[in-house]
Design a protein that fits this description.
The chain is α/β, with parallel strands linked by helices. The chain is built from 14 helices and 14 strands. A five-stranded mixed β-sheet has the order 10-9-11-8-12, with helices on both faces. It has a three-stranded parallel β-sheet with strand order 4-1-5. A two-stranded antiparallel ribbon has the order 2-3. Helix 3 runs antiparallel to helix 13. InterPro entries: Bact_solute-bind_prot3, Solute-binding_3/MltF_N. This is Amino acid ABC transporter substrate-binding protein. It comes from Roseomonas marmotae.
């Protein structure tokens, strides 16, 4: 009987050493030799083509991170632009392996649409943008206003809920794409436009003729946890996507960057050794090479590096970290233990 406590203490270690059988999505990615990632057609800071036609942004970086983890090469991510109307069909049909495009995680998308949420890579909230000349300083002053919004989005539902809750009359102007919505707003067809505040900030600097002439109102009328989605039925693939994001966050927590990741492999810190594959077993548990997280950090960087590059001080958008800072700095980004 004295063996029982010893066996119980060994079970967690034994479990992590069990190799994962390759699921259909990972097998497809390996057979194809590339990861197909569903992204936005163009939101600066998240996923938008640059002058060379290459997608850049926080979501684009994450797609490259998954490619680095699964194929050892971040360049093997192929981007498929999707709209609000086509994004879920592309994932359900198998056209894309993962959806990473400013998608709010909700109960109905998890259940009725048959998706698995694989972590949150950006905490956001819905806001309103108005012309500075309108003199509007608060959302409640939009009573009687026309508001541009995208169809089939949580923004459209939130706008209706908010206006009823606050007993405010707004007239939604539903437009089929971000480009159409921006054009309608600039032409004066809408008094305001509403979507995730981060997208408003991106549109203001990338799509409006005079960014300084427009303001984003301070109120946030919803919670918008944005993150990658995968199909139900392939738990191994969900684990890979989830733990890739967690590894990027944990690397920032530990101070591991693209510049120092090679030398950090010599660290005696057991947490760093597990993350970088010096201590074996955790790659095998995911069905990946032991250096999967090392490749992610070496080729793409940690979460903070990606945020700064595309959304923060190192970008034209210049967003504060806010909720997207590490939990040790007052934010919500918190990596699960890699054990």
């Amino acid at each position: 009987m004295r063996l029982l406590p010893i066996l119980l203490t060994l079970l967690p270690s034994l479990a992590t050493m069990q190799p994962a059988l390759a699921g259909p999505t990972l097998e497809g990615v390996r057979a194809r030799g590339e990861l197909v990632c569903g992204v936005n057609t163009g939101v600066a800071g998240f996923s938008a083509p640059d002058a060379k036609g290459e997608f850049q942004g926080l979501d684009a970086d994450f797609c490259r991170a998954i490619a680095a983890a699964t194929l050892g090469d971040a360049a093997k991510a192929r981007f498929m632009p999707t709209t609000y109307q086509t994004r879920f069909v592309a994932l359900q049909s198998g056209e894309v392996d993962v959806l990473a495009r400013n998608v709010t995680q909700t109960l109905s998308r998890d259940t009725a649409l048959g998706f698995n949420m694989a972590g949150v890579n950006f905490y956001d909230g819905q806001g309103f943008m108005v012309p500075k000349a309108s003199g509007i300083l608060a959302a409640k002053q939009l009573d009687g206003a026309t508001v541009c919004v995208l169809p089939g989005s949580t923004s459209e539902l939130n706008l209706g809920d908010w206006s009823r809750r606050e007993k405010i009359q707004v007239q939604p102007v539903v437009l089929s794409s971000m480009d159409e919505m921006t054009a309608a707003y600039q032409s004066g067809r809408c008094d305001s436009m509403t979507t995730d505040a981060s997208q408003l900030a991106a549109l203001r600097v990338s799509a409006l003729r005079a960014p300084a002439d427009h303001v984003i109102l301070p109120e946030r009328i919803s919670k918008e946890p944005l993150g990658p989605m995968v199909r139900h039925g392939d738990e191994q693939w969900r684990d890979i996507v989830f733990w890739t994001l967690s590894a990027m966050i944990e690397a920032e927590e530990m101070g591991i960057t693209r510049a120092n990741v090679v030398e950090m492999k010599a660290s005696t810190d057991p947490n760093i050794q597990r993350l970088l594959g010096v201590t074996p077993g955790f790659g095998k548990a995911l069905g990946l090479p032991e250096d999967w997280a090392f490749q992610v950090i070496r080729q793409v960087g940690n979460y903070g590096e990606s945020f700064a590059r595309h959304l923060g001080d190192g970008s034209a958008i210049g967003l504060e970290r806010g909720h997207n800072n590490l939990w040790t700095r007052g934010g919500l980004m918190y990596a699960l233990p890699l054990r």
